[in-house]
C-alpha cells in the first residue's frame, strides 16, 4: 500500500486569489510560470507544513487535477486495478478519515493488514 500527496496548481497564489489568512501569515506565492517553479513551490509547501507522505507534482497542464477534480483538495483511495474506491468531498471540510479507513479495509485483504486503519 502506498500513500502520496499530489501537488496541483497553487490554490491561493498572490497574483490570482490571495486570501487574507495568507497575507496575515506572510504566505505570498505567485503562480509558477513553469514546471521547475511549481516544484520549488511544492517543495516549500511540503517542508513548511511538515508533510511526511511522499509528494509528486501534477504536470503543468494540470492533468491530474482535471481528471480527479482535485482542487482545492481531495482524498482518494485507488484500488489495485486502478479504480477509484473512495473519493472524498472537497477538503478540508469534506474530509472524513473514517470513510478513507473503511475504503482501505474493503480493498486490503485481512492477512495483509498489519496496523489499525481506523486511527485519527
End-to-end Cα distance, whole Å, is 18 Å
* Radius of gyration of CA atoms, rounded to a whole number: 16 Å
Strand content: 5-15%
Secondary structure: number of strands: 4
Helical residue percent band: 25-40%
Order of helix and strand elements from N to C terminus? EHHEHEEH
Biggest sheet features? 2 strands, parallel
| Total number of helices | 4
Tell me the strand order in the biggest sheet.
1-2
Average pLDDT works out at 81
Point out poorly predicted stretches: none
Shape: elongated
Question: What's the domain count?
Answer: 2
Q: Which structural category do the helix and sheet elements fall into?
A: alpha+beta
Describe this structure in words.
The chain has helices at residues 20-25, 35-49, 63-68, 97-107, and strands spanning 5-7, 55-57, 76-78, 84-87. The protein has two domains: 1-59, no CATH class; 74-112. The chain is of the alpha+beta class and 120 residues long. It has a two-stranded parallel ribbon with strand order 1-2. Strands 3-4 form a two-stranded antiparallel ribbon. It is built from four helices and four strands. The mean pLDDT is 81. 32% of the residues lie in helices and 11% in strands. The two termini are 18 Å apart.
Amino acid at each position: 500500500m502506498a500513500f502520496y500527496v499530489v501537488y496541483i496548481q497553487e490554490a491561493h497564489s498572490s497574483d490570482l486569489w490571495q486570501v487574507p489568512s495568507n497575507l496575515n501569515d506572510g504566505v505570498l506565492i505567485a503562480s509558477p510560470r513553469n514546471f521547475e517553479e511549481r516544484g520549488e513551490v511544492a517543495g516549500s509547501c511540503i517542508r513548511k507544513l511538515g508533510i511526511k507522505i511522499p509528494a509528486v507534482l501534477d504536470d503543468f497542464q494540470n492533468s491530474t487535477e482535471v481528471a480527479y477534480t482535485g482542487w482545492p483538495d481531495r482524498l482518494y483511495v485507488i484500488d489495485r486495478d486502478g479504480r477509484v474506491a473512495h473519493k472524498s468531498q472537497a477538503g478540508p471540510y469534506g474530509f472524513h478519515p473514517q470513510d478513507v479507513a473503511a475504503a482501505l479495509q474493503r480493498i486490503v485483504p485481512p492477512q495483509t493488514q498489519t496496523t489499525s486503519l481506523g486511527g485519527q
